[in-house]
Amino acid sequence: IFHVFRAEQKFADHMKEKNEASSEFAKKKTLLEQRQYLPIFAVRQQLLNIIRDNNIVIVVGETGSGKTTQLTQYLHEDGYTSYGMVGCTQPRRVAAMSVAKRVSEEMNSNLGEEVGYAIRFEDCTSEKTVIKYMTDGILLRESLRESDLDHYSAVIMDEAHERSLNTDVLFGLLQEVVSRRSDLKLIVTSATMDSDKFAGFFGNVPIFNIPGRTFPVDILFSKVPQEDYVEAAVKQALQIHLSGMMGDILIFMPGQEDIEVRRFFTSLLQPQCNMRLEDLENAPPLAVLPIYSQLPSDLQAKIFQKAPDGVRKCIVATNIAETSLTVDGIMFVVDAGYCKLKVFNPRIGMDALQVYPISQANANQRAGRAGRTGPGQCYRLYTQSAFKNEMLTTTIPEIQRTNLANVVLLLKSLGVQDLLLFHFMDPPPEDNMLNSMYQLWILGALDNTGALTPTGRLMVEFPLDPALSKMLIVSCDMGCSADILIIVSMLSVPSIFYRPKVPSVHCSDQVREKFSVPESDHLTYLNVYLQWKNNNYSSIWCNDHFIHTKAMRKVREVRAQLKDIMVQQKINLVSCGSDWDVIRKCICAAYFHQAAKLKGIGEYVNVRTGMPCHLHPTSALFGMGYTPDYIIYHELVMTTKEYMQCVTAVDGEWLAELGPMFYSIKHAGKSRQVSNILPEYHTQHIQCAFVTLDHKTSHKGQFL
Ligand code: ADP
Ligand code: MG
């Protein structure tokens, strides 16, 4: 571990010197040279010709060929930005930010001026912006305001092979926009060969292939299945590192928790890992650099910097480095074989982020990362038979596996009446669609005919999950909108609390208890924010209390943005003062469908399904001896068990009052109990109703 840190320091010093030394001119020249070395540069004019002659073009090219960074600039250089912006969508926030930064450097301008980006709750563009990178979700929301996307002269839908939910919806919408606007160029890019499908979808449009420049990659499979992929990856990385072979290493892990430098370092030090870096005298320095979506952007930028001579880079990434981000100089790939996917879980009635084996297509993309600058090697920490027999050829598109409530809301508000007839490349399973509509009906966003209600219309205005929007909307009438606004903002920013790197784990937990409101994690969040505010939004105060200052600043920004929307929508800001029961009831009004009931000591079961679920150890209610009869939860996290994350105690009577479609109060002797009134019954009937209504026959009310 000593070596690792020493290397990091050396690395940082080196970068500082290098940046100071390089004159602006030299930097510009090398960037230009780099641009001209990319495979796409050789076909620049052909590409521009085919785009000039066609409204829609599919562009296929290996990862790293220059699609994302160069296409926008070529269109700009060719004059397209004289009558509108060139927009480029990304399925991932990190990619949008990182690429925008790179392109602004290549164009020698400040980020946010000519080249900018927009992701949810963060708009880094200005009047000057002509090239705009954004998440696909942002463009989707823009199409709500401006259905013909008049601000754009060209839209590049990047990373189409990822088949993200929003990209899939954009396919259908943009195709219509292009048919209305003959001056709009639509370019769909993909790193893989499923381009025929895209071309067919848009009506046999041309496909342009960027000739690649790749080197052979040796693929080595594990002989036996690996039990602990983190440990296996650490061992493999060390073996490569000590072998004397040159070149940087890229390791694919499923999620942030595995990558968190600490976990990785801890593994480096574990006694059972028989090759500990610490014990190895004269081991050459290794710079371990993590990259995942929640990593602060200054640290993200590190992966692209060249390591000083003699220091090997070892990047530990999620599948973000599979196609969205390309790092030069990688010779070795270590692939754990897993990724995290959001999948609708019918058992819990909602999406759950879970670890799944990757597909063969993912595996091949990952291997390809080792062959960009020279011949490489890919170590797969799974067996050849697992690859052949257990992995799907390609990943199932998100639209076929996740909750579609937001998409339904959006399409309904765009006037798409019959969702089952919308032009999807791969239509979602009907059950998914109907289930999402059912969830929106529960929240009062759709009426009995499946049409958008005034509440639903209002919900669309917020860039939030439906239940969170609902909570904001009802909070006004309940007299606690100012408080709920803070809670919603806190829930929209990940990881507020942190544990200190080395010592005194207890200490941070104790400090954290200071904020705990025993009956609610939501109120605990409110408490943290209010205390921070009372301390003049101080960063010292944050540090003293093991709270991420940056995260809190983000919360404040999110709050300001949501407040603007509330003001626009004439939702008054009122606080309930110290009567926090009102807040709990308001949370219940939007989350009654996610309720759990106490069963035995500290054990909960879902009220609707009877499925056992557990308090998360980070909950304010955990281990406090106070176990309320009923709680609602913000989300379920599935690890070894089903954990409820962010919970609040509620009254059983509130559940019956606010969620009458699920619960009623049973009078058993003197005690009163909330019971489940067969949600299946409703589900079936509502589903029938929506099916008929989507085919335009009205059966209003018959099923309720
Ligand atoms: P593609 O989209 O075809 O996968 P890109 O346009 O993303 O290719 O990448 C082209 C080149 O730009 C790559 O060599 C990559 O390393 C480099 N690059 C992209 N983003 C950055 C960045 N933020 N910093 C440094 N180099 C970058
Ligand atoms: Mg790209």
From TrEMBL:
Q: Which Pfam families match?
A: DEAD, HA2_C, Helicase_C, OB_NTP_bind, WHD_HA2
Top-level taxonomic group: Eukaryota
Reaction catalyzed: ATP + H2O = ADP + phosphate + H(+)
Q: What is this protein called?
A: RNA helicase
Question: Where is the Helicase ATP-binding domain positioned along the sequence?
Answer: 48-211
Q: InterPro entries of this UniProt entry?
A: DEAD-box_helicase_OB_fold, DEAD/DEAH_box_helicase_dom, DNA/RNA_helicase_DEAH_CS, HA2_WH, Helicase-assoc_dom, Helicase_ATP-bd, Helicase_C-like, P-loop_NTPase
> Which ranges carry the Helicase C-terminal domain?
216-415
A GO molecular function assigned to this protein is: RNA binding
BP terms from Gene Ontology: mRNA splicing, via spliceosome
Q: Which UniProt keywords apply?
A: ATP-binding, Helicase, Hydrolase, mRNA processing, mRNA splicing, Nucleotide-binding, Spliceosome
| Family in the record | Belongs to the DEAD box helicase family. DEAH subfamily. PRP16 sub-subfamily.
Q: Which gene holds the coding sequence for this protein?
A: dhx38
Lineage of this protein's species? Eukaryota, Metazoa, Chordata, Craniata, Vertebrata
PROSITE patterns in the record: DEAH_ATP_HELICASE, HELICASE_ATP_BIND_1, HELICASE_CTER
Q: Name one GO cellular component term.
A: spliceosomal complex
| The EC number(s) this enzyme carries | 3.6.4.13
